[in-house]
Design brief:
Blueprint: H1 2-5, H2 10-21, H3 25-42, H4 47-53, H5 59-70, E1 83-88, E2 95-99, E3 104-109, H6 115-126, E4 130-132, H7 136-150, H8 166-176, E5 184-185, H9 186-192, H10 199-207, E6 220-221, H11 234-248
Parallel strand pairs: 1-4, 5-6
Antiparallel strand pairs: 1-2, 2-3
């Protein structure tokens, strides 16, 4: 009824949803329901009550859908961790946000070229499934990212879950030490981790950073002052640098 009032066809909505979320709205709804069921089962609720309370009309239908998405029966492996994925909008375009119970494990613009590869790497590293849903880390990140773009947040408090090699984690930690509104070079970053000859390795590790903005690889530039190597695109990198300069200059 609302769509008709605004002269919007259901097909237009379906195409928009598929383009922006990568799946159909029906698949999105199924994943949300299964995530709710997973959380209920995890705290000890029985399968029958969970099935009917999450809107399934039959236990067999619930079991089939759950197993198709989670690859296990509802009565199995509820202690395993899952990765939840959600979406948020920003002035620079939509982003996907992924989280486990431990914290945010991915925050990327939806058009990043390596996004599908990052999805697969996360699933392999954490040995778990990715389904649409939301938890407290995702809610907190949405609020903090919104405050960042408003210019009222300069530091992030949300917990992160960043699987990687020891060297990668060292490099990512060094990124978090770069002050808001400031820039550094790959050479300076290598020196800061006491590995001055690892400039190329540092740049490579920056490229594997999965958590845009919060782990601020956009604050690293070339020694000649040129913008280099940003997965979200150099225009976004330039925008973020100018945004932070604008609000840091106000203080």
């Amino acid at each position: 009824m609302i769509l008709k009032e605004h002269q919007i066809s259901p097909e237009t909505i379906r195409r928009w949803f598929k383009k922006n979320y990568g799946i159909t709205f029906q698949a999105y709804q199924r994943m949300y329901r299964i995530n709710n069921a997973f959380q209920e089962l995890k705290i000890g609720k029985n399968v029958i009550n969970t099935a009917y309370d999450t809107g399934y009309e039959s236990l067999s239908g619930f079991g089939y859908t759950y197993k198709k998405i989670m690859k296990n029966a509802p009565s199995q492996n509820t202690n395993n961790e899952i990765i939840l994925v959600n979406r948020l909008t920003t002035p620079l375009g939509p982003m996907f946000i992924f989280a486990t119970n431990q914290g945010i494990c991915l925050l990327e613009f939806v058009d990043r070229r390596m996004l599908e590869t990052e999805f697969k790497q996360l699933q392999t590293q954490l040995n778990t499934k990715i389904i649409f849903g939301e938890n407290s880390h995702i809610v907190q990140t949405k609020n903090e990212i919104d405050e960042y773009f408003q210019g009222i947040r300069k530091y992030f408090a949300v917990k992160l879950h960043t699987p990687g090699t020891d060297f990668q984690r060292t490099v990512w930690d060094s990124l978090k030490q770069i002050p808001y509104g400031k820039l550094t070079t790959y050479k300076e970053q290598a020196e800061n981790i006491n590995n001055p000859h690892a400039i190329r390795s540092v740049a490579n590790a920056n490229g594997f950073n999965r958590i845009a903005i919060i782990i601020p690889c956009h604050r690293v530039i070339g020694s000649n002052g040129e913008l280099m190597g940003y997965g979200g695109g150099l225009e976004r990198k330039r925008w973020l640098i100018e945004h932070e300069k604008k609000y840091s200059d106000k203080n």
